[in-house]
Specification:
The complex is a heterodimer of chains A (about 120) and B (about 120).
Chain A lengths: L3 E2 L4 E5 L4 E3 L2 E2 L7 E7 L6 E7 L7 E2 L2 E6 L4 E6 L8 E8 L7 E3 L3 E6 L1
Parallel strand pairs in A: 2-12
Antiparallel strand pairs in A: 1-4, 3-9, 5-6, 5-10, 7-8, 8-9, 10-11, 10-12
Chain B lengths: L4 E3 L2 E4 L5 E6 L6 E7 L6 E7 L2 E4 L8 E4 L6 E5 L8 E8 L11 E2 L3 E5 L1
Parallel strand pairs in B: 2-11
Antiparallel strand pairs in B: 1-3, 3-8, 4-5, 4-9, 5-6, 7-8, 9-10, 9-11
The chains are: A mainly beta (about 120), B mainly beta (about 120).
Chain lengths: ~120, ~120
Amino acid sequence: AQKITQTQPGMFVQEKEAVTLDCTYDTSDQSYGLFWYKQPSSGEMIFLIYQGSYDEQNATEGRYSLNFQKARKSANLVISASQLGDSAMYFCAMREPNSGYALNFGKGTSLLVTP
Amino acid sequence: EAEVAQSPRYKITEKSQAVAFWCDPISGHATLYWYRQILGQGPELLVQFQDESVVDDSQLPKDRFSAERLKGVDSTLKIQPAELGDSAMYLCASSIYVAGEGTDTQYFGPGTRLTVL
């Protein structure tokens, strides 16, 4: 069963606008971690932001913030003030203790930032 | 800034040939992962090392894939013989637990893009 669901295959946003990329997850563990990675066309996975299941505040890293709604099992990524360089694939991933701490990735969302 | 190194960046081979990928993790990172990413999908774990020991290789097709990390530093992933379905991006990642961060974030290398003809 898919543990990470990203329902938006592709998204468009205009430069300088904010955009939200959706991610829902499925786990029975109480302790887990949620990550977002960016993958430009070059292929490298770039770490953006992390949210622990016990963190009470939403994580923020510069223009990236994570809207964590534990009861709904959602961990949406918000990018503020989009830039042309934000155009890339974005992957949500979950880390669970019973998976040996490897990451379970979603299928990704392709984001295109337009001028 | 420390990075995960991988080589080669691109590899084209014919089916039934042997291929090998190399990964050098960030210095001091005890945990090393190999992931395979098929076009249009997210990465999937092939094998995980803690130092020189295999922690998880349950998804590694052991009839044709092998991985080693002999001295607990760099690692090699081998496919023999390669099949058409092995065409994918092979990503290496490394991590270390940092108490202040509360987790061990995985940092990825640039990947090796394999094409099997």
